[in-house]
Amino acid sequence: MNEDVNIWLESNFVFLKKELALLENELKNRLLSVTNSKIDLHNVFNYFFDIRGKRLRPILVLLSAGLVRSINSKGLAEKNTQIENEIQLASALELIHNSSLIHDDIIDESSHRREQITMNHKFNNKIAVLAGDLIYSHAFLIMNDLKFPKISGILSECVEKMCQGEINEIISPYADFEQYIAYLDAKTAELMSTCCKCGAIIAGANETIISALGEFGTNFGIAYQLIDDYLDDEQPQNFDVNLLLQAKIYSEKAKKNLEIFENSEYKKHLLNLLRYVAAKSNLKQEKYQEQCI
Ligand code: FPP
Ligand code: MG
């Protein structure tokens, strides 16, 4: 990956090093706990770690929660329980994200993801759909243990919206710019917004802050997906849209959503995620240049 892209994401990995290590441990233990079955689920779940993503959704949860915690500073004992809860929440959201990718690969009949063979191809559709459901259910088990009914409700609504978005896309492709943005919102931004909102809620934020962080997640998610479509050459065919310009506009909106917060390390790292998205857009030019050499 391009150096500039690495810098911004790396800074988040370094900043959240301890929490992300705990998250990996938690995910491993969680998935190992559901291996009581005739089929070697251990083998199935190795896939989960083999195609390890960037953990962007957990990062959004942890930074949003941390930002709120830095405002409402709490005692040390309380802070430790709080971080444990945030890691549980981040694990649940990463599991939901992975479950959605497993289902997406079945729908798209994809054979590879992140240069790894997909679960549907490695095993088959039957195993993949059920393993996706299992991972998804486990996420709600974690939510249940957290005992935050408001968060469980937001998560359920989020998945409902993601599924509706996918169904709409299968039935008919977007006809105009508004429909396209609504689709990007449902498919990618809603889950990112949910990560930010739920991170804020678990850290005890008020409605204004929950809403600001939720908006940040939406605008960041749309910018992220616009750049993804740009890099994958998925330019909509039915109407004219400058993907790079729109990504810039949504990134600016996301930046504005954070203006209500005072400067802090958490805010700085949320802004670094926007820099990461902006730097990603250069990858295409580099790829092109490499092809021309
Ligand atoms: C990738 O799109 C797909 C998504 C980001 C979301 C897919 C959502 C669902 C299948 C519904 C939700 C289901 C659950 C269980 C939570 P893409 O195919 O454009 O991108 P890709 O290149 O990453 O495959
Ligand atoms: Mg796909």
Can I get a quick summary?
By secondary structure, the protein is mainly alpha-helical.
Topology order in helix (H) and strand (E) letters:
HHHHHEEHHHHHHHH
Helix/sheet category: mainly alpha
pLDDT < 50 stretches = none
Reported for the largest beta sheet, the result is: 2 strands, antiparallel
Shape: globular
Q: Report the top-level CATH class.
A: Mainly Alpha
SS field, number of helical segments? 13
Structural features, described:
- Helices cover 78% and strands 1% of the residues.
- The chain is an all-alpha fold.
- The protein has one domain (3-292): Farnesyl Diphosphate Synthase, CATH 1.10.600.
- A hairpin with a 2-residue loop joins strand 1 (112-113) and strand 2.
- The longest helix is centred in the N-terminal third of the chain and has 33 residues, at 76-108.
- The model has no long low-confidence stretch (mean pLDDT 89).
- The structure holds farnesyl diphosphate and magnesium ion (MG).
